[in-house]
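Page 47, continued from p. 46.
Same chain as before, 137 aa.
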Amino acid sequence: MPRPTPTQPSRIRRFFGLKKLLVANVIAFALVAWGFSGEYVRYRRMEGEIDRLRQEASQLEQKNSELTEIGSRLSAGTMLEREARVKLNLRRPGEEVVVIRGDVTAHAEAQDAAARAALDAEARAPNHVKWWRYFFR
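Result:
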């Protein structure tokens, strides 16, 4: 077996030297990958935040356009005149105002009819029922 010459490193030393280099490379790669993964996670969070803010901005723009439309309708002359007539009881010169309350009269008539029906039912009740109601109501 030939003896290794002192100028030539042995196979064992070269093998262990390569292992050290490999371990150093793996550690360096792990550090770079760890830093990259942290930045990637931060990037994904920022993208999610940007998407959420864009969605919120579009909703606010839509709401703003709706409010602008409502404001333009309310500032129109016909709407202002209608509100002045209804809420402030204003009228034009020479104009007569007539108020018809159809719902109130129909409701009052229905109540009167119900009261008359109750009185008729009370009048038709037998005498002993009337006395019972008088004392025990």
